[in-house]
Write a structure and sequence with these properties.
Elements: H1 8-16, H2 24-36, H3 41-50, H4 55-64, E1 78-81, H5 84-87, H6 91-102, E2 106-109, E3 121-123, E4 126-128, H7 133-140
Parallel strand pairs: 1-2
Antiparallel strand pairs: 1-3, 3-4
Helix pairs in contact: 1-3, 2-3, 3-4
Length: 141
Amino acid sequence: MKFSPWSQDAALTLLATLRDENGPVLMALQLMQEEFGYVDQACVALIANYFNKSRAEVHGVLTFYHDLRTTPPTSHQISICAAEACQAVGARNLEREIKAKFNDEVQSAYCFGNCALGPAVMVDGKLIGRATVEKIEKALQ
């Protein structure tokens, strides 16, 4: 996935599309991440000022949602479900294995709604059920 470089002008153009929305903070954060790959710290103040919110309100939304990133993404996004159903079928062991193999590209997430096919892993937006290191490697090709 290719992202645009962050700039204040580009961010303001995106925010203008949400001018008439109710509760635009989460939508604005999601839009920034879709466009730039992450939410730059400068966006917090920009969104707060644009929508007349406090920086604390915007920061609270940003840090509440695990899907929102504050750092540029790695080349591949790998998320493993850490919820109880996936843990019961080996998610913790799989997480250790994939972290050893793929380093910092792995993050924990909570429930992809694929409990019957755990452990569940999301690789670059693609859901993998009954995940194994081999399935993840194949998805990365």
